[in-house]
Design a protein that fits this description.
The complex is a heterodimer of chains A (about 240) and B (about 110). Chain A is globular, with a radius of gyration of 19 Å. By secondary structure, chain A is an all-alpha fold. Chain B is extended. The chains are: A mainly alpha (about 240), B mainly alpha (about 110). Chains A and B meet through helix 1, helix 2, helix 3, helix 4 and helix 5 of A and helix 1, helix 2, helix 3 and helix 4 of B.
């Protein structure tokens, strides 16, 4: 339990520092952290907010990055199907990278899916994650204001995003998709309204999907997410 | 800056971002149990996050306001490459962060 909390805390501090270094004021950064509660998406939209990108692009980018949660929710829904609608909404909100990974690590091979013990574990874990994320994030926000601009801590946000990205890029389709998106997004970096960003993501995803259909069949994304979480502890640990 | 520190603007921004968190995380938890997604869409979901992260990171490192930073003096690029190699090897975010920021600082001061 201690290790994931340290990982979350480190991640939270970095996100907090990066938010302030991107130009957010301390109160607005704290507000964003508490309301949005999705570290990678928060970090990713900072440069877009900074350059005044259209809101639709900001939201779309966050949605793209958050799409992994759709896979998580599909992979773990059978554990929560007996809860009420409102309880499922609450559980879903808390089902981020670390919560999902640790829950699946423990219960992916459970015979019965969805019992009070599992829910208790999930809520205990998830609220601890939420609290340590917010506390560390706010600590980072407060610390970030103290560090001189010349230290170049803006780079910490980029490094953090690279740390999320690398575990996702282990196979050929993802590598091709990332290369296509990378070249496309750099080539179109000066296209107005950040339309190049959206176009290059669509191009990269298309290439990756086509590449996958031409390679030997692999488990579905949903089955694989459960498997990765069960054995490796997920993405952002 | 388009009001990065204007409360009304940022409340709208964050409300939209919070909605994307909630909709994606709760999607299958609140959809009917019989709901399935077509395999092509499922594949696209698998690759969208990595591509979107790349579309943020790559221009951030290589593009500037006007033009590009394809030079040997691009400290961000070297720091990211070194940090990425460290992370690929160790899978430890704290170590990669320390190495990346140290590399960046040394390049900034001495290169």
């Amino acid at each position: 339990m201690a290790t994931p909390s340290i990982a979350i805390a480190a991640w939270g501090v970095v996100t907090g520092v990066a938010m302030v270094k991107a130009g957010l004021s301390v109160p607005i950064a704290i507000f964003m952290s508490i309301v949005v509660f999705a570290g990678s998406a928060q970090l990713a939209v900072l440069p877009l907010l900074h350059t005044g990108a259209p809101l639709v692009i900001v939201w779309l980018t966050a949605t793209f990055i958050n799409l992994r949660f759709v896979i998580f929710s599909a992979a773990s829904r059978s554990y929560f199907s007996r809860l009420t609608w409102r309880q499922r909404l609450f559980a879903g909100y808390l089902n981020g990278d670390v919560g999902f990974a640790l829950f699946m690590q423990r219960y992916s091979s459970a015979e019965e899916r969805g019992n009070p013990e599992q829910w208790g574990f999930f809520y205990g874990l998830a609220t601890l994650n939420w609290a340590s994320w917010q506390a560390s994030s706010i600590a980072g926000i407060l610390l970030g204001g103290l560090a001189p601009t010349s230290w170049g801590l803006e780079l910490a946000a980029v490094l953090a995003l690279v740390a999320v990205l690398i575990p996702m890029v282990t196979r050929l389709p993802a590598i091709l998709g990332v290369v296509v998106t990378g070249i496309g997004s750099v080539a179109t970096a000066h296209v107005p309204l950040k339309l190049g960003l959206v176009a290059s993501v669509i191009a990269g995803v298309t290439v990756a999907v086509i590449a996958e259909t031409h390679l030997p069949k692999r488990p579905s994304a949903i089955a694989e997410a459960a498997d990765v979480a069960a054995h490796e502890g997920g993405y952002a640990s | 800056m388009n009001g990065i520190n204007s409360w009304p603007h940022m409340i709208v921004v964050c409300a939209g971002l919070a909605l994307t968190t909630i909709i994606t995380r709760c999607s299958f938890f609140v959809l009917p149990a019989s709901f399935r997604i077509p395999s092509t869409i499922e594949r696209a979901l698998r690759y969208a996050p990595a591509c979107a992260l790349t579309a943020i990171v790559a221009p951030d490192i290589l593009a500037r306001d006007h033009g590009y930073a394809f030079t040997w003096h691009n400290n961000d690029l070297w720091a990211v490459l070194i940090a990425a190699a460290v992370f690929a090897k160790t899978r430890n975010m704290l170590v990669m962060m320390a190495v990346g920021m140290t590399a960046f600082t040394l390049l900034r001061l001495y290169a």
